[in-house]
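User: Please predict the structure of the protein below. I'd like the answer in structure-token form so I can feed it into my own downstream comparison script.

Assistant: Understood. Taking the following sequence of 524 residues as input:
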Amino acid sequence: MNALSAPEYHAHEEFQNRSRKLAEIRTLGIDPFPHKYVQTQKASEITLLAEKEEGHFDGAAAGKTPHVFASGRLVLFRAMGKNAFAQIQDETGRIQVMFNRDLTEVKGLQPTEELTAMKFIEKKLDLGDIIGIEGHFFKTQRGEPTIFVKKMTLLAKSLLPLPDKHSGLADKGIRYRKRWLDLITHPESLERFRKRSRILLSLRNYFEAAGFEEVETAVVQNTYGGAEAKPFTTHLHALDQEMYLRISLEISLKKLIIGGMQRVYEIGKVFRNEGIDRTHNPEFTMLEAYAAGWDYNDMMQFTEGLFESIALELYGDTKIRVMPEGEATAHVIELKAPWKRLSMKDAIRTYAHLDIEKMSEDEMKHLLLKQVHLDPKKIHSATRGALIALLFGELVEPHLIQPHHIIDHPIETTPLCKPHRNPILREEGLVERFESFICGREICNSYTELNDPELQRTLLLKQVEKREAGDQEAHPLDEEFIEAMCQGMPPTGGVGIGIDRLVMLLTNADSIRDVLFFPLTRPE
């Protein structure tokens, strides 16, 4: 389709019929898209009137029952002689409305014998139209909460039909690309996104109560770092310079800690030019927090308390039910602190029944080469610590259903973490890092942050060697960050939490695309 050609749906009969009705409505002098409509009550609020009101049809007709206003999308309509019953839907649910041949008016319509208010409603309205309702509450003989409509106002004429009410909107690709249709037709999707908003509010309240300040840092950067990932690049014409979308929040927040801020956090978008699957989207939301004077033990306790607090606010319980895709029974996940803690080596011993200490690098490589989806080149070039981390990812992670902190990782897994304070573990090449896992997924990552600029530069230089050897995800050398560290960085604990995976866990979503309003999809 070129820029001037009409979209394909313009040829659909339904679109043409509705467009013709729109023109007829305009001819009648009715504005089909008014500027404002004051809605005073939600569908759920009006439904609750049924618990305390005994309004009947005659009282509503006479205007003696509670006077109510509502607005919403017309989702059901059936004419029954003198009356017509319909349902309108807003963000809180549906409410039944009743139009009456003698008492219902249409705002802006000058009725005639040929076109009464009821005929206008029957002939000019379509499912999907958004209407405003003013009337009186009553309950039908079956006890159904209903609005006796005295005045109807057209708020937006819908030119395209809703998905078929029987087959619904089953295609996941369409639901992701056209999220508005998903929200209209699947109340559970709308509820999931409303929970996402409540989760974010709960997060902010928890951090504020702990003395953290929320900050915002740059998305477009001169260099990138804080994770092993391939960045998105762009060009800044003003400076004729290649720029990067951030892959992490880490470096900027550490600079603020160096600058004297004691406890900071940021919730923001990060971008990694990587694959798409059930738990990965190239654009996603991260929370990162840093506290001067803390270490990874403090962050473990803080993280446990955070998850416990959110679950209590959301569900009033620290137990949540999660139904993994493809499984017949749900897991009951207990988020209450304390969570189980295991070193990475102990986790491999416990769940994979392997004693890493007794295995040679060749034995580990042989075991990993059986994992068909792993890159053999990456296995053959891996150091011992990297091999341990790969074995953990392949053989242990799926077993971590209840919350686990996996602590004391090999130094090869990160160049930004402080070496272990225990001399024996330090000598083994371990760092003070933990990752938390629930339902077999990593849910957060935390370090006792490296604050030695000399060691930091040495580790980043090793990353440069990896980049020169062809590893596109290795860290670049960020001299400005090292310069900032040379000013003196206090002992610091940091944590990163994937917000999308957190929402997946707390709303029992199978895919990250279910918790993103507009996930990345192929164009139609």
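That's the full token string. The mean pLDDT is 94.
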